[in-house]
Amino acid sequence: MTRARISQLADKYMSHDMITLHTELSDFPEGRISLLYALLSHQPAAAQHKELLSVVTSLVQMGLDTHDLVDNDSAPARSGMKAMRAQQLKVLAGDYFSSRFYQLLSQAGQIDMVRQLSEAVCDINRSKMTLYAKMIQLKLSAEEYVQHAAEIKSGLFLSFTGVMGGLYERVWPELIERFSRCEVLLHELTRIQKLSKLESSWGVWHILQDGTEEDRRTLRDRREDQGIIKGLLNKYAVSEKLAGLLRQSAAQLQALAQRLQSDKLLRELQPLIEPFVQAAGPQPATALKELG
């Protein structure tokens, strides 16, 4: 089953003309869904349900991610009717995707999976509240930011730990957490390259943690000034630091995949890991010299 096939199946349950025409949706979580599908394929007890479980998990994740696109800070009176309608549809779209998840699992008699995924959603929402509270109070280190973000991304998928057997059950939690961490770091690297929403990026938390007092004060006072932030990100070589973290996490992810002791599965997972390896780039020559 290809990544495109998973997305195609999920789209069958997410497709709605009003949502498609009037609002933006989050990106489909292809990487994590493909990882889940690959692991479920090697579980005798779960293999027959791997397609259903992958689709419903993607629906729940899309519901959560679409709700995150709602801009609670925008003023409806100023944003206009079209923008306000798009915001309302994001909320409705997230709810719609969740309703399809309940429907599909209930029809298949997978009531226990409904409970597990629902509990995971509650845990994820609590993690989001903790993260947002720390962000508002500016009490967040760069590493805590990555940890919280990876925890939020991996939350639903940890529900399947009990479905795994033997070695897979032991490796799965660390595997999905490390994969999610790579996704977070890749996203942060992409944000810098596209200069997109830098005010809440990893680089800002890194500078607030390790920057000079003057630079920290500048960030606190002018966090919405993209030009100021861009200059500071360059000053502190944030792209290079993120690439190094991504390179490290991708290597750890590859090592975890090898622990599964299946050449067939490793071949299936390699295309999922490769984008992280490519984005991180080669090890700098200075670092290689130090290692030697």
TrEMBL record:
UniProt-listed Gene3D superfamilies: 1.20.120.1450
Record-linked Pfam families: HEPPP_synt_1 (PF07307)
Record's protein name: Heptaprenyl diphosphate synthase component 1
Organism phylogeny: Bacteria, Bacillati, Bacillota, Bacilli, Bacillales
